[in-house]
Amino acid sequence: MFVLCSCGQRHWGRYGAAGLLLTDPLRTGVLLQKRSVHVHTGGTWSVPGGAIERGEGPVDAALREAHEEAGLRAQDLAVSRTVVGTDHGTWSYTYVIAEAPRPERAELRSAGATSWEADRTTWVDLDLVDSYRLHPGLREVWPRLREELLGG
Ligand SMILES: [Zn+2]
Fold first, then answer.
1. Which residues lie at CB < 5 A from ion ligand 1?
2. At 124, phi and psi to the nearest 5?
3. Which end of the chain has less neighbouring CB within 10 Å, N or C?
4. How far is CA 37 from the centre of its chain?
5. CATH value at residue 67
6. Residue 22 CA, ligand 1 centroid: distance in Å
7. Looking at residues 64-78, what average pLDDT do you find?
8. Helices in 26-114 by DSSP H: which ranges?
């Protein structure tokens, strides 16, 4: 459900939202997902993620959504830390940074039609992320996330 936030906007997720920022050990890129035109701000690129459910933490939520949307399995990923990207008090979005080897193939399609929320999932070189039509929330915090990735 949408919540009316103290910032005056509506956000998705009664308990906030979380996304999986998947990178490879050498930090060559991140996994981005093109959002389906059927969802809020569809057609833009973001990370797999969604609303945190009642009783769930950001890490659980991000891993669950990444599985639902991109077919990623928690046991194949190494979660390193979380970064609160947007914090409006009543609503926040947490990025869960995780590592996995980047596939040799340039593009990794999502595992079949697992979800109507995402059109496709692909690895994007770190330096090219800026050139994608990013979801406004990711656009805003990307410089900080990029520093987190390169600094850690
Ligand atoms: Zn807000």
1. 5, 7, 88
2. -125, 130
3. N
4. 17
5. 3.90.79.10
6. 25
7. 92
8. 58-70
